[in-house]
């Protein structure tokens, strides 16, 4: 198999895969480190010089770069904050800089950071996208005064968390002397901590009204939840949907590690305390997607009913284990066995989990659609295709992590050097002559509303970022 690469000076060199390897002490073929460094630089140079717009990125691009998509079609003046957009690519550049010391990657990361600084809202966080067109339809109320529109910072789908975490690491990589980056990260963290409710939970968006009273534990509704208490502005409720808590925990941990300010670890503990309160009592000791100010499972969108949610339960279990590990406090582990038992007895015949389980009865709960209306049902034979009504079970992997957590071991085992090298070799073999990794539409699940013909190829920010991170890890593991 041939690995085709191009030097930055413009000359093209073709490497045979066997020529890109060397024998280790046991006679096994190993990927050559210098080849990996050159190939990684080629890929990153192409992506930065040709794909980036205003220093930022969306999700997907046509091969000719004439079309691009985030959550829908995007213009060249629009970049995405929501992963796998600008913060995801920026973090990949930082990992490459840490592994190689090559200033090119840091400069590319700074470009991405400056793009995020431009689109930071006056409320301190970010929304889904940033629009550099002063009259653009995705513009927000930016701190720089150049935008217009709403001022709601959001935690949905990891948007603000990803931006904050990237800026934290970029601030560190630049020695805390880049004034705009440092100020933006600091203002974002201040705003995030202020957005936390007094009970430790977080809303999906801020600024927002006060949340539940401190110490109030989750309970079942004492009213007809099917028809009553629908909240129009559900994004102001305590939210676990789409791993909000897990992303927040990681962001707060990184802030604590980089800035060593006690308030970030305190905020993390308060988040953990909220998760303990949010666990439902028997007979369903799982977690809901969001909670009313009375700490009862709440409606969100018209197809997201009050229920015990399997995906959020799995994510919350993982988050509690992380908080327990980082704080050394075993109280965050105590509710996990009951939640795991509920998950096990809720598995569907096909091995998956329903996204929703009816309150108290634990019957799998679904939705059917007629036009713009949704109807609750127990029937899974005619489900709308735009939503994940069934979830892959993570019970076995969570059980292994829980065993490691109770033994005081790291939650996840690091992959071996050999596995990383094998993955790196495969990544280089898949790279084309321009330094691109092509995806084929229809073969993989894609994020956003990508509109292509089945079999058509495109570029993915997620694939680029994952591959650059893997190559960076390989290079860091094989430092001379």
Description:
This protein is α+β, with helices and mostly antiparallel strands and 480 residues long. Helices cover 39% and strands 14% of the residues. It is built from twelve helices and 21 strands. It has helices at residues 33-51, 86-100, 103-118, 159-173, 179-195, 244-259, 262-278, 310-327, 336-345, 395-406, 417-430, 461-477; strands spanning 2-6, 12-16, 21-23, 29-31, 60-62, 68-70, 72-74, 78-80, 129-131, 153-154, 205-206, 238-239, 290-291, 308-309, 353-354, 356-357, 364-370, 373-377, 390-391, 438-440, 457-460. Strands 7-6-5-21-20 form a five-stranded antiparallel sheet. Helix 4 (159-173) runs antiparallel to helix 5 (179-195). It is globular. Residues 1-19 and 23-29 have low confidence and may be disordered.
C-alpha geometry: globular
Distance between the termini: 27 Å
- Helical run tally: 12
What's the Cα radius of gyration? 23 Å
E-strand count: 21
**Which secondary-structure class do the elements indicate?**
alpha+beta
Q: Let me know the average pLDDT.
A: 92
């Amino acid at each position: 198999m041939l690995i085709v690469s191009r030097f930055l000076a413009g000359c093209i060199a073709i490497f045979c895969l066997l020529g890109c390897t060397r024998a280790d002490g046991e006679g096994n073929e190993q990927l050559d480190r210098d080849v990996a460094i050159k190939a990684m630089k080629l890929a990153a140079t192409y992506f930065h010089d040709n794909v980036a717009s205003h220093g930022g990125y969306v999700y997907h691009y046509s091969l000719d770069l004439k079309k691009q998509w985030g959550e829908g079609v995007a213009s060249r003046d629009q970049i995405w904050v929501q992963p796998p957009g600008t913060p995801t690519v920026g973090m990949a550049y930082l990992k490459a800089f840490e592994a190689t010391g090559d200033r090119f990657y840091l400069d590319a990361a700074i470009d991405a950071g400056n793009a995020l600084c431009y689109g930071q809202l006056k409320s301190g966080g970010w929304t889904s996208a940033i629009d550099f067109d002063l009259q653009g339809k995705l513009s927000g109320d930016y701190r720089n005064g150049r935008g217009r529109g709403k001022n709601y910072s959001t935690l949905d789908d990891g948007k603000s968390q990803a931006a904050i975490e990237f800026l934290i690491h970029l601030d560190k990589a630049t020695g805390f002397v880049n004034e705009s980056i440092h100020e933006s990260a600091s203002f974002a963290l201040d705003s995030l901590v202020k957005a936390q409710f007094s009970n430790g939970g977080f809303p999906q968006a801020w600024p927002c009204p006060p949340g539940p009273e401190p110490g109030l534990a989750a309970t079942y509704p004492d009213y007809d939840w099917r028809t009553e208490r629908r909240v129009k502005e559900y994004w102001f409720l305590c939210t676990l949907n789409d791993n909000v808590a897990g992303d927040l925990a990681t962001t707060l941990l990184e802030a604590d590690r980089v800035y060593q300010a006690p308030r970030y670890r305190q905020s993390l503990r308060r988040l953990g305390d909220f998760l303990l309160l949010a666990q439902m009592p028997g007979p369903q000791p799982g977690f809901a997607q969001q909670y009313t100010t009375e700490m009862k499972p709440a409606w969100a969108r018209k197809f997201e009913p009050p229920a015990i949610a399997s995906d959020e339960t799995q994510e919350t279990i993982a988050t509690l284990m992380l908080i327990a590990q980082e704080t050394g406090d075993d109280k965050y582990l105590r509710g996990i066995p009951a939640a795991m038992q509920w998950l096990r007895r809720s598995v569907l015949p096909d091995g998956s989990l329903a996204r929703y389980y009816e309150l108290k009865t634990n019957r799998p709960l679904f939705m059917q659609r007629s036009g713009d209306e949704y109807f609750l049902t127990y029937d899974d034979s005619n489900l709308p295709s735009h939503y994940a009504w069934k979830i892959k079970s993570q019970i076995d992997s969570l059980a292994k992590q829980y065993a490691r957590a109770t033994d005081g071991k790291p939650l996840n085992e690091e992959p071996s050097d050999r596995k990383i090298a094998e993955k790196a070799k495969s990544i280089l073999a898949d790279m084309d002559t321009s330094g691109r990794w092509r995806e084929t539409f229809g073969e993989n699940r894609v994020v956003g509303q990508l509109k292509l013909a089945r079999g058509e190829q495109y570029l993915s920010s997620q694939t680029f970022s994952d591959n650059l991170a893997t190559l960076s890890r390989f290079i860091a593991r094989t430092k001379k």
